[in-house]
């Protein structure tokens, strides 16, 4: 039986009163990315990276209505093989015409996907590549309509960028609202979505750094992974996975007392607090314990330190940090 096809139209770039926007139609639904800081490149590689694994989760093959870089095509084929090995997804290589030669780099900067979390701070302050651009994506962790949390996040990112001699760039998108992405596990698809941002910034940056979530020796299949992330690269954009030589506890202990973390660390994935960390979810509790063990938690204004951690731990229904707690 022939696989279903997910058609992606040729991306179009527009500029309306300083709002730079790239739009394509994906399986009949508009998917857009926008930024006020920098013009975005109408990159088919961006859409292919973001939507390949979600399409595979629906048993569908991407059909790209625009030529793509042959380097990206080869990497996308490798990504389908990994997705098959890790999650038993069908090996459906995207259908697209490749250009005869690889894309050529036009940008020179290094961009870092910066959430304000422990992993991205470690890349910023200890990473192998000094970032020029700190890129935060509105629409991935924070919903497009959530302007309260967005304002807090943008203010924090801008202050960090200023202190670190970088430029803050905010990219907004409705990608996660598309049915293919909404109905696929984000833990498996977010790496390609992050890589898409690098391709959109191709006129400005030659490299996008994605911070590791887990150390290399804890080799669990994940959406952002040292084997997977580089496969989203093209001749013009190198996607780099960084920080996988370090465990979460090593990162926390190395950075615990270093500015600007005490005022700007944002680890919360529950998003219960408009300004950042809820101080009660799994990720917050784990980070607070790591900082407490390092003797620095009292300096962190972004958390509410409990009288005792016992009740917080007892109230967690489950944790993804068993390995970290054992290390502590």
Provide a descriptive summary of the structure in words.
The chain is α/β, with parallel strands linked by helices and 328 residues long. Helix content is 35%, strand content 18%. Strands 2-3-4-8-7-6-9-10 form an 8-stranded mixed sheet. A two-stranded parallel sheet has the order 1-5. The chain is globular, with a radius of gyration of 20 Å. The mean pLDDT is 95.
At a glance:
With 328 residues, the chain is α/β, with parallel strands linked by helices.
Summary keywords:
328 residues, 8-stranded mixed beta sheet, two-stranded parallel ribbon, 11 helices, 10 strands, globular
Portion of residues in beta strands equals: 15-25%
SSE string: EEEEHEHEHEHEHHEEHHHHH
Largest sheet: 8 strands, mixed
Query: What would you report as the Rg, rounded to the nearest angstrom?
Result: 20 Å
Shape, please? globular
Mean pLDDT: 95
Report low-confidence residues grouped into runs of 5 or more.
none
Structural class: alpha/beta
| Count, helices | 11
Number of E-type strands: 10
The helical percent reads 25-40%
Cα distance spanning the termini: 52 Å
The side-by-side strand order for the widest beta sheet comes to 2-3-4-8-7-6-9-10
